[in-house]
Amino acid sequence: MKASLSHLPQEKRAELKAIATEIRQEVADVVMIVLFGSYARGDWKDESYVDQDVFYQYRSDLDILVTGDLDNAKAVCESIIAVLYPLYEGKAWVMGNE
Known about the structure:
This protein is 37% helix and 26% strand. The protein is α+β, with helices and mostly antiparallel strands and 98 residues long. It is elongated and about 55 Å long.
């Protein structure tokens, strides 16, 4: 497991720092914030191309796990959603909102 974000572009490190800061300021009982998935592994995608005059873009998303006090899990989840939802203009998929 990597313990550093030094393999990420500066732009992503800044974005993650802002997200972590916002979560820690707004959410009580945060124990740990973990980055996992393609950005943690170092194999994320940020690609775009044009095919027959149509622009296509594929970008890996950020996979973040936030752990907290289990006695207050529902409130912690709701607080995290309240923090992240506006940051991504409601584009984030939230478990349970299928």
